[in-house]
Amino acid sequence: MNTVITGMHYCLPKKRLTNDELVSRFGERQIKSIVKMAGVQERRVVEAGETASDLAYLAAIRLLAGRGIDPKEIDLLIFASQTADYQIPATACVLHGRLGLDANCAAFDINLGCTSYPYSLSVAHSMILSGVAHKALVLNADALTTVIHPLDRGLVPLHGDGAAATLLEPASGSGGFVGFLLGTDGSGYQHLIIPASGARIRRTDESKQEIRDESGIIRTKEHLYMNGPAVFHFSIYKVPEVIKQALNRFNLTINDLDLVLLHQANKTMVDQIYRVLEVPPEKRFYFMEKIGNLSGASTPTLLAEAWRQNRLRPGTRTLLASFGVGLSWGVTVIEWPDDLKPAFTASIESEEAS
Amino acid sequence: MKRTDLKQIIAQELEVELEILHPDLELSKIENYDSVSVLSLMLALDEKAGIKMTPADTRGLRVYGDIERLAEKQGIALTD
Q1: Which positions in chain B touch A268 (Cβ < 8 Å)?
Q2: What one-character DSSP code corresponds to residue A346?
Q3: Which end of chain B offers a freer environment for a tag, N or C, measured as fewer CB atoms within 10 Å?
Q4: ∠ Cα A202 A47 A88 (to 5°)
């Protein structure tokens, strides 16, 4: 038995943050330098009061309506995010209520960032295979711009906000997941962190003080910190290694794949991983130039967009690799069923959240 | 590896004239040297010169000569 993705949709906030606006905030030289490296021209960012779960709600409600699925049929809801609505309760419970799901539907959060997609897929897949669930709705959403200091010239140009919804059901014929490889290097947890964001370091007047580091980046302890060199080093050396490890475990090579999708962290990084793995240009796909790095929503949005652009075909294989905060990584290979449905092409634009 | 070849790689990445790269040149004085360009340098040095730069190495870079010393430490002899 296997499970298959039977539908996907994503949603982006309406507000755009362009490089022109960033030039006036950070200066031309800084933006030129980061645009050259990251390849991001524009990002979508939430408005005040708009949350990652609002975007996830819209993606989910449109997907369910578009696929003709009664919300009561969903018996597993996973919300994977690092920008939840509340510390307590799980945002999945809030969404369960908003979406009008059945009382017999399990709902919980997964707290992971960039790697959340393969992790949440593997959890939903396993719960369906074990008979606990039958129709899963996986929501991957992040609004990282709400936790990045507006004067952090290293992070602001890279990130946007967004959400993706995925429907997972038992496979009725061909297709499904070839396997998952998930991993963690917890010795690097401090390289991507909001220091004052939980029980370890409490929020105080001191944690609200702005700090300017040696490279001129401004933040407080209540904002996201990234050790750029450490994360970059991890991504360009560790990620190709784990993808090779996954392919070896699945008895596949790059030749057996039709599409290789990588977390859209930044274009230089993604290109380097493609180069090391010798992925030919026709198997590459990018979706970051106009939206930025969406953290946990990045890989599913990339997959949904590939579907919308007709890059997923029946019987073909797609590799997904996500990596980042933790530090962690996740790789999966999906075989698309012979009866793969056409892409769901409703609007991806947000509207006022209800 | 020729010293000028290494300088060429760095000059290209940091968009400076090769001639200004002398051992005592403070990297922070280079207009294009910042937290982003150091990542490009990490990539270029590995790809084009086989020099592996760890995150700790990037923190230790103060002057251009530190890059040559990093190369030599990794057994890459620089010839004039």
Answers
A1: 39-40, 43
A2: S
A3: C
A4: 35
Closest Cα in chain B, distance from residue A339 (Å): 43
Report H helices in B15-78.
Answer: 37-49, 55-60, 64-73
- Catalytic member of A11, A114, A223, A266: A114
- The shortest CB-CB distance from A229 to any of B32, B34, B55 is to B55
User: pLDDT of A253-291, one tens digit each?
Assistant: 999 999 999 999 999 999 999 999 999 999 999 999 999
- A293 among known catalytic residues: yes
- The CA distance from A288 to A266, in Å, is 8
CA dist A95 and A104 (Å) reads 14
| Contact (CB<8Å) A154/B35 | yes
CB atoms within 10 A of CB B19: 8
User: What are A54's two structure tokens?
Assistant: 């609002």
Interface test with A, best of B39, B59, B70 (most A CBs within 10 A): B39
From A29, A216, A229, residue closest to B39, measured CB to CB = A229
Structure tokens given for A253? 């090579």
Who among A33, A216, A227 is closest to B37 (CB)? A33
Residue-wise over A243-252: b if at least 16 C-beta within 10 A, else e?
A: beebbeebeb
Nearest Cα residue in chain B from A230 = B55
Pairing of strands A106-110, A76-80: parallel
Before A89, cis peptide (omega within 30)? yes
Reported ipTM: 0.77
By CB neighbour count within 10 A (0-12 exposed, 13-18 middle, 19+ buried), where does A206 fall?
exposed
Residue A263 among the catalytic residues: yes
Name the closest residue on chain A to residue B36, using Cα atoms: A34
Of the candidates A351, A247, A300, A304, the residue with the CA atom closest to the CA atom of residue A141: A300
Alpha helices in chain A (DSSP H): 19-26, 28-38, 52-66, 91-99, 116-129, 228-233, 239-249, 267-277, 298-308
AA letter at B14 = L
Please report which helix (H) or strand (E) contains residue B51, including its range: none
CB B44 within 8 A of CB B9: yes
pLDDT in tens, A12-60: 999 999 999 999 998 888 888 888 889 999 999 999 999 999 999 999 9
